[in-house]
Every structure is written in C-alpha cells, then in structure tokens.
Amino acid sequence: VVHRDLKPSNVMVSGDGHVKLMDFGIARLLGDASHSPEAAAPAAAGTRPSAALARTRTVAGTPGYRPPDAEQGLVTPSFDVYCLGVCLYEMLSGELPYGEAGWLPGKTYEPLSKKVPGLPEALDDILVRALEPEQAKRLKDARALKAALLRL
Q1: For 46-71, what is each residue's pLDDT tens digit?
Q2: CA-CA distance, 152 to 43, in Å (whole number)?
Q3: Which of 68, 89, 101, 146 is deepest in the core (most CB within 10 A)?
Q4: How far apart are alpha carbons 68 and 135 in whole angstroms?
Q5: pTM above 0.85, yes or no
Q6: DSSP letters of 101-121?
Q7: Does residue 47 lie in a domain region?
Q8: Range of 137's domain?
C-alpha cells in the first residue's frame, strides 16, 4: 500500500505509544490496475501492470509533502519515502524543506545539520536520499529508509 498523503496530521500515536496512520482515502495498492491509465484502455497483448508501479490520473498528496513524481501520477513505495523525509525534516526543524508549495525545479533546502545544532551530518545524507526529486534515485521504500536511520 502506498499512502500518498503522509504528513503529521495523518500520523497519530496511541496511548500505548504505537504509531497509527490515518486517512487512507487516496492510498493505492501497488499493481492495482483499476487506478491506472492502462485500465481505461485495452492492454497490449502480453503486457500487465507492474507490481511495483502504478499510475493515476490525479495528483495526490499535500503540496508541501508530496514528491515531484506525484505530478506524473506515479505511485511507488518511494512516494511515501519522500513524504516521510519531509515529515522528518519538519519534526526536527519546524519547517518544511521546500516550503508550503513543495519542491520546484532548481529549489534547494538547507541541510538540517546547519539549521539544528548537534544533529549528525549523516542525517543530512539520509535526507538527501529521501528527498531526492528523481524517483529512481530516491530511497526505494520505507524499509530502506528505516535501515539507513538505524545505522545512525
């Protein structure tokens, strides 16, 4: 499942400390052809939707939190990695890395280690990979992000 709208208001912590994700209204299952443009047209002989990629016709997510590939309707696990990277940046700095409008071509953000004294520069490296504008270069999924964070 790709949530597609991860942001602080959609992340809750229960009384026993468990993190709960809310609002799965625009979430998509990977490989779910019912939400892809291909579902609207006959598939070519011998083709099928990728199990790791789906495409939608609408731009999903909240502007400051969504990755640039949202504009193309791409749905991959790295979509949520980008959103989580934005959330992490915001939790530690109090600001969105690219502002309320989100990423735009040529726009950069200030590394966290320069904004928040005492944070390891290795965290900057993880955020660079989580907030990578190009989907193919981004950390591929939440497991990869978790593994990188655990190595800090």
Answers
A1: 434 344 555 655 678 899 999 999 98
A2: 45
A3: 89
A4: 8
A5: no
A6: T---TT-----HHHHSTT--H
A7: no
A8: 8-42+53-150
Give the count of domains, the chain: 1
Instruction: Please give the Cα distance from 148 to 119 (Å, whole number).
Output: 15
CATH code of the domain in which 60 resides: 1.10.510.10
Residue 66 DSSP symbol:
S
Whether the CB-CB separation of 98 and 64 falls below 8 Å is answered with yes
Query: Roughly what angle, to the nearest 10 degrees, separates helices 121-130 and 142-150?
Result: 170
Catalytic residue among 5, 16, 32, 141: 5
5 catalytic? Reply is yes
**CA angle, residues 52, 56, 59, in degrees to nearest 5:** 115
For the stretch 52-59, contacts whose Cβ atoms lie closer than 8 Å and that sit 24 or more positions apart, written own/partner, are: 52/76, 52/77, 54/2, 54/28, 54/29, 54/30, 56/28
